[in-house]
Amino acid sequence: DAGITQSPRYKITETGRQVTLMCHQTWSHSYMFWYRQDLGHGLRLIYYSAAADITDKGEVPDGYVVSRSKTENFPLTLESATRSQTSVYFCASRLDRDNQPQHFGDGTRLSIL
Amino acid sequence: KNEVEQSPQNLTAQEGEFITINCSYSVGISALHWLQQHPGGGIVSLFMLSSGKKKHGRLIATINIQEKHSSLHITASHPRDSAVYICAVDHTDKLIFGTGTRLQVFP
């Protein structure tokens, strides 16, 4: 019962580099989400997906790209990393549109030097 | 003004005390969630509720839809309850989060 897994758990990279954070869920949940968590801001939605091949912007999408070619995977790419993208990133999934609990991955701590 | 407000931001308690964390929201919702995050840890869903009251062990969550307010209570608090507690509301098909309440329980 793997649930929802994120990789890597920790990543250090340099400004301007491309980096991809992976998210995989084994429940066949329709909805998947990417959040960033920063001190003083709480959790903020970057992108979300209602199903394979359907993605939508959240509150803070600039500088990020997502794709969802398969239901179980929802990778998040920083095309040209900036220091302001240093954060803890959480992936989450839920079975359906609303009135369902969200299940969170363990997070990826990303540092951009 | 944030759509989801939590209070207090920080809370310190002695072991055994009764704890209350409050959450107010200003948007229409289909459900409200309480989440727990231990230091350096992942995020766990504690409750999802759309009316009334739910209880799980020493944790109780209530919601008043008319007043747009929810409370999370911890009875007989313990040091292992030390964590950040986050309120989130289901609005359209997304969650809107409060900034969390940091709870420290001392022995």
How would you characterize the overall build of this protein?
The complex is a heterodimer of chains A (113) and B (107). Chain A is mainly beta. Helices cover 0% and strands 51% of the residues of chain A. Chain A has no helices and eleven strands. Chain A has strands spanning 4-7, 10-13, 19-25, 31-38, 42-51, 54-57, 64-66, 76-78, 87-94, 103-104, 108-112. In chain A, strands 2, 4, 5, 6, 9, 10 and 11 form a seven-stranded mixed sheet that branches. A four-stranded antiparallel sheet of chain A has the order 1-3-8-7, with no helix packed on it. Chain A is globular. The model of chain A has no long low-confidence stretch (mean pLDDT 94). Chain B is mainly β and 107 residues long. Chain B has no helices and eleven strands. Chain B has strands spanning 4-7, 10-14, 19-25, 31-37, 43-49, 52-56, 59-64, 69-74, 83-91, 94-97, 101-106. In chain B, strands 2, 4, 5, 9, 10 and 11 form a six-stranded mixed sheet that branches. Chain B is globular. The mean pLDDT of chain B is 94. The A-B interface holds A 31, 33, 40-45, 48, 50, 58, 90, 92, 97-107 and B 30-31, 33, 35, 41-45, 48, 50, 86, 88, 90, 92-95, 97-100.
SSE order and pairing:
The complex is a heterodimer of chains A (about 110) and B (about 110).
Chain A: E1 4-7, E2 10-13, E3 19-25, E4 31-38, E5 42-51, E6 54-57, E7 64-66, E8 76-78, E9 87-94, E10 103-104, E11 108-112
Parallel strand pairs in A: 2-11
Antiparallel strand pairs in A: 1-3, 3-8, 4-5, 4-9, 5-6, 7-8, 9-10, 9-11
Chain B: E1 4-7, E2 10-14, E3 19-25, E4 31-37, E5 43-49, E6 52-56, E7 59-64, E8 69-74, E9 83-91, E10 94-97, E11 101-106
Compact description:
The complex is a heterodimer of chains A (113) and B (107). Chain A has 113 residues and is an all-beta fold.
